[in-house]
Amino acid sequence: GGLARVRCGVVEDDGFYMRRCVELARRAIGFTSPNPMVGCVIVKDGKIVGQGFHPKAGQPHAEVFALRDAGDLAENATAYVSLEPCNHYGRTPPCTEALIKAKVKRVVVGMVDPNPIVASKGVDRLRDAGIDVTVGVEEELCKGLNEAYIHQMLTGKPFMTLRYSLSVNGHLLDQLGEGVTEAGGYYSKLLQEYDAIILSGSLSEKLSSTISQESVANQPLQIVIASDPNQLPPLAKEVSKTIVFADKERATEADLAKKGIEAVVLDQINLTPILEYCKRQGLCSVLLDMRGRFGDLEELVREAIEQKVLQKIAVEVLPYWDEPDGGESLVALNGLIKRLEVKNLVPLISNRSVVVEGYLQH
Ligand code: AOF
Ligand code: ZN
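A: This is the predicted complex of the input protein with AOF.
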């Protein structure tokens, strides 16, 4: 943190360039999964001569774009990368080799890659090639950028967040605060960030309003939990892929397919098959999106907490004092969560809500 040291107009601070990497990486928010977001800058004589970010899984890595941008100027330069350069052939060739070939003198790495096939081997490879490597600059910032990717890599499970809106008197609201129509609103930021959202199928007409209004945005997969799939509201399938998990007592997959609904029917709706589905689909982050009442999500939320699968809670407090017969209260969660470490108070964008993000301490 802190301000960059500046000497004769030349920025010398590693943190400064690493923060720039993170800023670049964020341009691809919502598009890189299952890959991480990564940014890279090439610095020579205190000037940025090349920059890049990883735009999408399958496309070249951040380092490749930054090196291309720098051209011959990369020789003897310092490369800053928010994540350890890879040393393996995946969908793309190793970044370590590209950096070595470009003859960079020094590499500054934000954090080691938790991917077991990388896990410090990239750093080792660069050092073996005689490159000076510094690891762990703005590490917390870099980890925060890819909390879902890191969690998924280390546990094999998607990063799961529970979100809800509350009135000032503590009732669940179905309003979305700084909602989907506002670019930069908190809810639209969540939609952009998460690979999938899980919604209750008993929450009626509101399902289609989850779709982001920004045309360039990532559209998360909608997972609808429906105890009664015959009572489903219209699904906004034309905009976002939707899958319904339903109770087998009420309908068959074939019945639902006839109605154009892609469904998985289960003996009993519970967390395990949903997590397995997420894994098969390669989903790294999932938002449990609670609107107004628990509805069909109640058991799922409970299980996610009890099985320590829920990582984070994002609460938006809106300036309403709702009627007693308004939304449900959060009593169903009482006693389930032992400790919540509040890390982020998301700065106000409008004066219409306050957002608190906390992490469950399992
Ligand atoms: C980097 N720079 O910009 C990214 C990295 O299939 P691939 O070739 O895209 O490889 C994916 C893995 O590479 C991914 O799981 C992670 O370990 C690393 N991502 N590495 O050096 C990048 N996106
Ligand atoms: Zn790479």
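Residues 14-25 form the longest helix (12 residues). The radius of gyration is 23 Å.
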